[in-house]
Design a protein that fits this description.
Layout lengths: L2 H21 L13 H5 L8 E6 L4 H16 L3 E6 L6 H14 L3 E4 L8 H9 L4 E4 L10 E5 L1 H15 L4 E8 L4 H14 L5 E8 L4 H14 L3 E8 H13 L9 E4 L3 H9 L4 E4 L2 H16 L7 E4 L2 E4 L15
Helix pairs in contact: 3-11, 4-5, 6-7, 8-9
Length: 335
Amino acid sequence: MKKWSWWVLAVALLALGILVGYTIPRGAPGTPTGSGAGAQSRKWEPQSRVVAYVLPNDGPYYDLKWAGVSKELERLGYQPQKYTAAGYKNIKAQTDILENLIQKKVAGIILHSVSDTAVVPFVDRAYDAGIPVIAENVEISSDKVAGRVMLSNYQNGWELAMALTQAIHGKGKIAALVGPPGLETTDEMWKAAKEYFSRFAGIQIVREEYLQANTPEALERVQAILAAHPDISGIYTWYVQNGIGAAEAVRQAGIPAGRIPIVAKDTNAQGEQLVRDGYMTALLVGEPVAMGRTSARMLDAILKGQQTERHVLMRNYLVDRESIQNIDRSGFEAR
């Protein structure tokens, strides 16, 4: 290749890198991206066929993840058991569950943690007891994690912010129902969203509310926001349940559909209907069934000493009123 051709190629690659980096940055430095070498090389000798699926809460999203996990584990010859902490704030409830599972010597644990740090001692103890732990949805700050099945939280927040910014034409007051306080998943999403909003001088964030996935509480919070800021232009919400609460507050206030755009992550039947009705603008659809299935397959391969990907990022995609009828539902509908 001629010398000048190399220069052309280098400039083109540099331009592409700048363009991609500007469009969707890659998350915060220091975020764990894989499993520790010890966890990857460890040979596991399970003493039972019981696999525990430990969740933060009950609800439609978690039910879909359970459907994916349980069916796949049963197909692979395991006995799946579900445990819930009844809310992200119930850290002790989840650590008590983990302590019990370690004592029972289950074959493995798939863990959607309520905290990226509080469960670390229990994950490390599970490793020492010969029980591999797959971290799902929420990162766990331990090199003893055997594998990870994650969402791209930073990109998710960025894309929700893009959808809301487009809907309000890059200007106006916005409020956010961020999610549970101190949760790495929601914090990273909101960090990305704020970074995107900061690029638009006409956008002003007037309220940041931290709350669990709770429709009635979201409704009350947004009612208070509407009273304090009747000229609000848009609302960012972490989860569809909170988006539903926000939309209902807008509807009950007699505000016309579409006047205040609302975006949220994940979907359910009520959320989709609100999109069709115009009270929600966009949903960032995940694949909870596929996520559970992927975690089950990863754990099975690890227990059998087979080569497998130890860090999987699940995809999400935005849908709106026009595209919601055409989405692939296989990853988020139980069959």
